[in-house]
Write a structure and sequence with these properties.
With 246 residues, this protein is an alpha/beta fold. The protein has a single domain, classed as Vaccinia Virus protein VP39 (Rossmann fold), CATH 3.40.50.150. The chain has eight helices and seven strands; from the N terminus they run H-H-E-H-E-H-E-H-E-H-E-H-E-H-E. A seven-stranded mixed sheet has the order 3-2-1-4-5-7-6, sandwiched between helices. Strand 4, helix 6 and strand 5 form a beta-alpha-beta unit. Helix 1 packs across helix 4 and helix 5 packs across helix 6. The longest helix is centred in the N-terminal third of the chain and has 14 residues. The protein is globular, with a radius of gyration of 18 Å. The protein starts with 23 loop residues before the first helix and ends in an 8-residue tail after the last strand.
């Protein structure tokens, strides 16, 4: 019997998965803490995909009804573990595709005694479109996404008109989308995309938003600032009642 040809996504993703092995400590964290922190995900065609109809119930996942904050591209988890520690009354979800980063996040969360955080290993737009119920998210964070700064790669950037649509679907009415980047041209693209969206409005005055006080300084931010790049923040409010946008 001939194996069927592999099926791939029909749109580019905003990441390239690293193939490096995890450290012994990361492997141990993955094995020992995965059942506590990781959400099981029915897959579609790719390893980090989310199957249609895979929606979770946040109240069941966290065991309570509370505000939900989602961070896309949580990296090693510095920002979201800190936030979860500071706001135990809020539910947090970290979305990341790199296993080593997720393992580090779980380890740090466990050491800090954090129990209001869950993690998902998946492509972020599919999490917003298929895993999270519509209008279930209070805040959505996108901090220092890959800028894909070479012109031939900009189509792989996360923040495109299609992303605005799935972000709006997941956010409740009045919910906030927070973004930050150290790449000026990408910051302007983000602003243009969201200014053009009929379901978002600016939650800031002037050219850029003030720095979000809830964001700790991470290695990405220090690297950008050290290279002399300005850190740009943006904030947008979901217009309407948060009903699906299409």
């Amino acid at each position: 019997m001939i194996d069927p040809a592999p099926v791939f996504r029909d749109r580019p993703v905003s990441f390239v998965r690293r193939s490096g092995r995890m450290s012994e400590g990361q492997e141990r964290a993955w094995a020992e803490l995965g059942d506590t922190y990781l959400l099981p995900v029915p897959r579609g065609s790719a390893a980090t995909s989310v199957a249609h109809g895979a929606a979770v119930d946040p109240e069941t996942v966290w065991g309570r009804r509370a505000r939900l904050v989602v961070e896309i591209g949580s990296g090693q988890g510095h920002a979201i573990v800190h936030a979860a520690t500071q706001s135990p009354e809020t539910n947090f979800l970290a979305v990341e595709v790199f296993k080593a980063g997720l393992a580090r996040t779980m380890r740090d969360a466990d050491m800090a005694g954090v129990r209001n955080l869950r993690l998902v290993e998946a492509n972020a737009p599919e999490v917003l479109e298929h895993l999270l119920p519509a209008a279930s998210v209070d805040e959505l964070w996108v901090f220092f996404p890959d800028p894909w700064h070479k012109k031939r790669h900009t189509k792989r950037r996360l923040v495109q008109p299609e992303f605005a649509t799935v972000a709006a679907r997941a956010l409740r009415g009045g919910g906030i989308l927070r973004l930050a980047t150290d790449w000026e041209e990408y910051a302007r693209q983000m602003r243009d995309v969201l200014d053009d969206s009929p379901v978002f409005s600016r939650a800031f005055a002037g050219e850029w938003a003030s720095r979000f006080e809830g964001r700790v300084v991470t290695a990405f931010e220090r690297k950008g600032a050290g290279a002399g790049r300005a850190i740009r923040d943006l904030g947008y409010r979901r217009i309407g009642d948060g009903a699906p946008t299409g």
